[in-house]
Design goal:
Elements (H helix, E strand, L loop, with lengths): L8 H8 L8 H7 L4 H11 L2 H8 L6 H11 L1 E3 L14 E3 L2 E3 L3 E3 L12 H12 L3 E4 L6 H7 L5 E5 L5 H13 L4 E5 L9 H6 L12 H6 L1 H9 L15 H5 L8 H10 L4 E6 L2 H9 L4 E4 L13 H12 L4 E4 L6 H9 L4 E4 L1 H33 L12 E3 L5
Parallel strand pairs: 4-11, 5-6, 6-7, 7-8, 8-9, 9-10, 10-11
Antiparallel strand pairs: 1-12, 2-3
Helix pairs in contact: 2-17, 3-17, 6-17, 14-15, 16-17
């Protein structure tokens, strides 16, 4: 039989000492988030329904969004044993500039909808951690305003081309003068995708109280108070602000061609990227026209619902242009393992948007920082478990895509 004894006070005291309560509600919320999925759940509770759905939703049946996530569930990472992973370095370079991770914060439209600090909060985190950040033509801060809070981190300006090329050139010049490093021409929005969640929610820009939203206001008073007591929520670079997603897209030029890429090449003396590429032929077309890289992207499945899944077409695009240009991936990325898989398949880095938008809704700048910290920890842990100590060692032999249904 096991001998028993009375426990000593020195053994009981640590067990009986209560944990000091966390008085900061934001810190308390974020401490419960152990993954981006947890941040998503918090964001869903914190933000008005129309706001959360604008970030979370996709086009039509949202089949493309589900396929993007499903593709990552079929990833099989191949570990190697007996490797020194006592010091894992997840840093890389993006267009010759150092980045602490193979990761960038993608540009998003109307970002202050998610939190009143919007792009500024995102850029401050990027500046602090050493990764690129982006600003959209339909962003809620000017290029100059973003540069003021993130003067040293590499910045990408996402261009939606206007029919008035002179106005586009003026905006590009402002971005370049503000210190933006990369110009990213988005080519997958000739018209707006049908985002049914936004239609059903009656989303307009800026949101305004109606009989339908009074109940939602009562459930989310902090969000409404912040929106109503800070600078007006507007598209900072548009002279005539539209009120719906469809009207936003109607401002863009649906008549883009390789000649426009060549025209931008003549205006922009830094790296030029074409965003929204899903075929090897289009990737070659973009690089032949003067681009330095492409973003393999379905626009987060917010445009053409049934388009190819970016992760699945990434290898063929890398094979087509990877020796001539840098290839990036976005759409469907919610974990650090997703980033590791994409880099092993040939991507230079990944662009994430929903992940940090969930953080923004959950806790403002601290929520974005938490999203970054979760992704970084997952990237480092995944690399170590793979037996890889450097991003340069991530190669195609470390990843497989299982067939659908396998």
């Amino acid at each position: 039989m096991t001998d028993r004894r009375l426990p000593r006070w020195s053994e009981l005291r640590p067990l009986l000492a209560p944990r000091p309560p966390e008085l900061d509600p934001t810190a308390r919320r974020l401490a419960r988030a152990a993954s981006i999925s947890d941040l998503r759940a918090i964001a869903r509770r914190r933000a008005p329904r129309a706001v959360f759905d604008y970030a979370d939703g996709a086009a039509d049946t949202e089949t493309g969004l589900r396929r993007s996530r499903e593709a990552f569930t079929r990833v099989e990472l191949v570990p190697r044993a007996l490797r020194d992973v006592s010091a894992v370095d997840p840093s890389t370079t993006i267009f010759g500039r150092p980045a602490s991770l193979p990761l960038a914060f993608a540009p998003t439209g109307f970002t202050r909808l998610f939190h009143h600090e919007g792009e500024r909060a995102v850029a401050r985190v990027a500046e602090r951690v050493g990764i690129p950040t982006g600003l959209s033509t339909v962003g809620t801060v000017t290029p100059e305003g973003l540069a003021a809070v993130a003067p040293t981190t590499p910045k990408w300006f996402q261009l939606y081309m206007w029919p008035d090329r002179g106005a586009s050139a003026e905006l590009i010049g402002r971005a370049q003068a503000a210190g933006f490093h990369v110009l990213a021409l988005t080519v997958d929005v000739p018209v707006a995708g049908s985002r049914l969640r936004d239609v059903h929610n009656g989303l307009v820009f800026p949101p305004r109280p109606t009989l339908r939203t009074l109940g939602d206001m009562a459930l989310h008073p902090a969000w409404w108070m912040n929106m109503l007591t800070t600078e007006p929520l507007r598209f900072a670079s548009l002279k005539t602000p539209p009120t719906t997603v469809a009207r936003v897209a109607s401002l863009f030029d649906a008549n883009l061609s390789p000649d426009d890429v060549a025209w931008l090449r003549g205006l922009w003396d830094g790296p030029l990227v074409v965003k929204g590429i899903l075929t090897a032929d289009d990737a070659r077309l973009a690089i032949d026209a003067g681009a330095d890289g492409v973003v393999v992207s379905s626009h987060g499945s917010r445009q053409l619902d049934l388009s190819p899944t970016p992760l699945e077409v990434l290898p063929e695009i890398v094979d087509a242009i990877g020796d001539r240009a840098e290839v990036f991936l976005d759409s469907g990325i919610l974990t650090g393992a997703d980033v590791v898989a994409a880099v092993a398949l040939g991507a230079r880095a990944c662009l994430v948007a929903r992940a940090y938008c969930y953080g923004l809704m959950a806790g403002g700048e601290r929520g974005v920082q938490h999203a970054h910290d979760l992704l970084r920890a997952e990237i480092v842990r995944t690399m170590a478990l793979l037996g890889v100590s450097s991003v340069d060692d991530l190669a195609p032999d470390r990843v497989r895509l299982r067939p659908p249904g396998a």
